[in-house]
Amino acid sequence: MAEASATGAGGEAMAAMAATEGSSGSAGLPLGRSFSNYQPFEPQEAGLPAGSGPSPTFPALGIGMDSCVIPLRHGGLSLVQTTDFFYPLVEDPYMMGRIACANVLSDLYAMGITECDNMLMLLSVSQSMSDEEREKVTPLMIKGFRDAAEEGGTAVTGGQTVVNPWIIIGGVATVVCQPNEFIMPDSAVVGDVLVLTKPLGTQVAVNAHQWLDNPERWNKVKMVVSREEVELAYQEAMFNMATLNRTAAGLMHTFNAHAATDITGFGILGHSQNLAKQQRNEVSFVIHNLPIIAKMAAISKASGRFGLLQGTSAETSGGLLICLPREQAARFCSEIKSSKYGEGHQAWIVGIVEKGNRTARIIDKPRVIEVLPRGVMATALATDNSNASSEPSS
Amino acid sequence: MAEASATGAGGEAMAAMAATEGSSGSAGLPLGRSFSNYQPFEPQEAGLPAGSGPSPTFPALGIGMDSCVIPLRHGGLSLVQTTDFFYPLVEDPYMMGRIACANVLSDLYAMGITECDNMLMLLSVSQSMSDEEREKVTPLMIKGFRDAAEEGGTAVTGGQTVVNPWIIIGGVATVVCQPNEFIMPDSAVVGDVLVLTKPLGTQVAVNAHQWLDNPERWNKVKMVVSREEVELAYQEAMFNMATLNRTAAGLMHTFNAHAATDITGFGILGHSQNLAKQQRNEVSFVIHNLPIIAKMAAISKASGRFGLLQGTSAETSGGLLICLPREQAARFCSEIKSSKYGEGHQAWIVGIVEKGNRTARIIDKPRVIEVLPRGVMATALATDNSNASSEPSS
């Protein structure tokens, strides 16, 4: 362990999600639905081919690891840091702040690091927002970001704000570690089991939710999903994206994880391939199961846009994919659900580590695990169902 | 010294420079002059009133110091880091990369720190650039940034790239320090002398250079400056913005500096006021001399746009303003010009530290020191003057 070398990292998630369809936002829209209009793209348009690298324009920075690890001049310590910034993808500014922070911290968590010494915030307000919108939205984003940082045991001590056509939110997470505090993601062995700590399908859910207001798009998927199911999936995606991977990072130590990464812009296949490439042993990763937010697999198929079942659909602030010794994996999945870690943590065994040439693949017909949104229970219990509709309005 | 406390920092420069006049760039322009069109504003429009704070939208992050200082869990060490990102303001992508990196590092240098353990790059390419423009411009920006990082004794190990309407370039500089490696900017005493290590007027020069192609603007200043003088001033500004303040940071230790800051978006007066506020002693700063790139004071007056003589004109990657013991200031200014530190370092005594209530001001009629661009000598020596013109073409 602990071969702390200066290694390139970062930069992949949003490069992979950056896309072509422009939409620069208009100041006149009402606040609720307008927030994610201050973004450049429809996320599903975005995925680069898995494994195609971080960005054609940024060739030298590499995507090998989720964080960079820099040996320091001081007594065996290493500097570990990461940065991420992107554009709004949910309607709720507070949740967007939380998601942005969770997404930055996740790169540390993927290395089994549970502490963060400092967080900087990167922010732009949109020039096309009205003053009123700006004054409502910006403090909420900042509060969400700060609250998530606090949950991560750190604080935001600085940053940078600019004016830009689109809203930007992101951050820089930094920690100085002793060698035993982080797990280099290179030690998978044949026989290990792959565990995933959040369901897939966040981008599908976010897009499907936007399509509720877009009859042309909605018509292509309304045969496979109801409006209510999309709303629930969207809430579930938002909740998952805002959940820190910190508990999983801690349990990586408890259960002797051999390697991990977090699932973001390249989808589960892309990140599995990246992780496989870094292994010291001659191994390959084979994914058998895909835990997916309920109905999102059907939307992916019906729309023909995402590649969710091929593992190439981008995720935002996704779960950790962790290589664990076979005998530890089930215990990991059981332990993470314990109420002592708070609500909402889950994990699934999704694949195995075989002898191979450092690649990753999904089997031909993977088992889709439909992960029921938590809201389903609440909805089933609700007596007043008057606002819910399972039919599209157009 | 060395009261390493977690202190808010960063975020001021571009907040102060962010502005209203939009210009989203068009892909069809030729490369040379088009690069800085991928920016949102004419910089001179931008200055917030000096001392008005970092940004109305980012109230809690403070602008007290140039970098944040976080005490670590490990043996008396402190984490010092800073981030800055902004939009192109010169025509040369390579120089823009250098300037962006110099600007980030400058926040460390302002604390007397000469080392940087890690640099992350923040970058966006513009969606409105053609593929050809993108492929030419982006590698040059990255190379400029990397070269400046190398000159600063560090390396770029990661970062983030996105697509955005405007080009963005910036970075995150991080260092882990022992207490004697940094100088907290709070120990000015009555009788100290203020020294400045780069001439003022970068924003005026950048804007005046843009006006060469804007007859309406140019007509307002052509009585006080020639086109050739503007070209030389622009080159001088670019050179200064790309120069690291690292030598000055090292000499802060040699000559027992009591406090320092770097001059960026709030101008010399704004940053002097910020620095004065942080002093432990009851002192005030009084600025008597303004070293300004030749002719830029005249342009500022003629255009009525900048407030350069009032100290409120924004600077990019400006010099360090350093409080030195009186008997050390002249030696500092002499030493920094030594050829052992390479070409082009200068420094001027610009003011004094008096007893006062932690404010800063510029005297009524400050002495303007016209700093001659280095190119003047080269031009004077040139025999073929056929391309030079001192008259505007329109």
TrEMBL record, chains A, B:
Pfam families assigned: AIRS, AIRS_C
Which UniProt keywords are listed?
Acetylation, ATP-binding, Kinase, Magnesium, Metal-binding, Nucleotide-binding, Phosphoprotein, Selenium, Selenocysteine, Transferase, Ubl conjugation
Which cofactor(s) are needed, names only? Mg(2+)
A single Gene Ontology CC term: cytoplasm
Question: Which GO biological process annotations does it have?
Answer: selenocysteine biosynthetic process
What residues does the PurM-like C-terminal domain cover?
Answer: 190-362
The entry sums up its family as follows: Belongs to the selenophosphate synthase 1 family. Class I subfamily.
- Entries under NCBIfam families matching the protein: selD
Name this protein carries in UniProt: Selenide, water dikinase 2
User: What gene is this protein a product of?
Assistant: SEPHS2
